[in-house]
């Protein structure tokens, strides 16, 4: 049976980061001034928890998302700015479905194989 994973939750609290490292039985909390130092402190807490469960793997989460944590950590580690959010095109058709089996993606129409085609449109 696989060991229960160690979850590492990161949350920003103003200028500091709060780190909660937990398994089903234990929970350890620390604070750090940056995401990079929070990650380093999390490794110390993970090592402490691994004394009880040596085979447990750690999952790092930012707002519950491991991909968001990885992206934020790599940006912070390498000194990269946060990505700019693309501007919303006011003329874009944002309706989820523009016809049976078709979905408008950007300015191109693409067939969605999961939706059966409308026989009248053939």
Helices and strands: which structural class?
alpha+beta
Poorly predicted runs are 100-105
Specify Rg, calculated over alpha carbons. 22 Å
In percent terms, what proportion of residues is strand?
A: 25-35%
Biggest sheet architecture: 4 strands, mixed
Terminus-to-terminus distance: 53 Å
Encode the helix/strand succession as letters.
EEEHEHEE
* Strand count: 6
> Which overall shape is indicated by the principal axes computed on the Cα atoms?
elongated
Mean pLDDT: 79
Tally of helical runs: 2
Subunit arrangement of the protein:
single chain
The residue fraction in helices comes out at 10-25%
Strand order of the largest sheet: 3-2-1-4
Structure explained in plain terms:
This protein is of the alpha+beta class. It has a domain of 73 residues. The chain is 24% helix and 28% strand. The protein is built from two helices and six strands, in the order E-E-E-H-E-H-E-E. The strands form two sheets. Strands 3-2-1-4 form a four-stranded mixed β-sheet. The chain has a two-stranded antiparallel ribbon with strand order 5-6. A hairpin with a 4-residue loop joins strand 2 and strand 3. The protein starts with 5 loop residues before the first strand and ends in an 11-residue tail after the last strand.
